[in-house]
Amino acid sequence: MTTPQLPLQDQLRGFSRALFSTWIYHRRFNILFDAGEGVATSLYNRVFGIRRIFLSHGHADHIAGLVNLLNIRNLGAGDQTASLKIYFPQNNRLIDLIRDYLARTQNSLSFQLEWIPIAENEEIELEDQKSRIFMRTFKTKHSGRQLSLGYNVIEIRRKLKDKYVGLPQKDINAAIWAHGKDEVAEDVEKIIFSYGGDSRPINPDDVRKSHFLCHECTYLSVEDDERNFQQHSYLDEVLEMAKEAEVENLLLFHTSLRYSLEMMKSQIRAGLNRVNPECRVLVLYGDSIIDPVSTETNKRSRRKNRERETTEVSEQGV
Length: 318
Ligand SMILES: [Zn+2]
Fold this sequence. Notes:
- The chain has 318 residues and is an alpha/beta fold.
- It has helices at 39-43, 60-63, 66-75, 93-105, 169-179, 235-245, 261-275, 295-317, and strands at 12-17, 21-26, 31-33, 52-54, 84-89, 113-118, 123-125, 133-139, 149-160, 185-195, 213-216, 249-253, 280-285, 288-290.
- Strand 13 and strand 14 (288-290) form a beta hairpin.
- The chain is globular and about 65 Å long.
- 37% of the residues are buried.
- The chain binds zinc ion (ZN).
């Protein structure tokens, strides 16, 4: 019998440790969220599959991988002509600086590169998603000096109107015959993926009922924020936020290097007992997605990672 896969385990690749590097690649949408150091080195030729990059803010651990990534897209053995769009919080001095560096050092790119400044509550079309799926930004609370953004991938779904729920099918059919399909059904928005970047707890209204929320969790307890910068989140407040927002799956990332995997797993289990967030909780620990509740999955994901590395190394050889 095979162990059930963790939610989105086959779609997501990523790496995250606070201060060092953070990036998450969602394969289904060809979207990279943030571009911390090492992203190209980890994805190898998969970097050619990225169509859009969404940056949450301009701190080095979220953008340092751009230089290498663009260089490889320009020169590597893949589709050097595939276009790339980079969306970033507007008026960001740090991102302007790296753009300037890239413009000076890579003035003849083989592909079309577009830098697109965005604000909060902005909607972005994802042309390859048949217009039923789009991105909407929301503002996060991180640095006082620069705008930081979170991202929701939203799907438009058709849903039976409340007044018809539970009615016999023949009554629903009769209403459709009499008044048309729009009488009984309506379009509703479903957030299918959310990425918050670095932030204090996200406003629950911004990610209400998200199917899969990636939320930073730099500290396991509030006392560990010894410098008291108040820029990041700790475990219990993230779990409480997820509970209030009624998210279905929560992926914690951006965890501090001070925590071993065992420490993290046991403290998350204790947090789940305290808060009971009523959602599945996973952790992106380094480059592995870990289920802190199941020991079985941990062994499996480590083995899978080893296998993946072996395959990738051999892919590089040919
Ligand atoms: Zn940051």
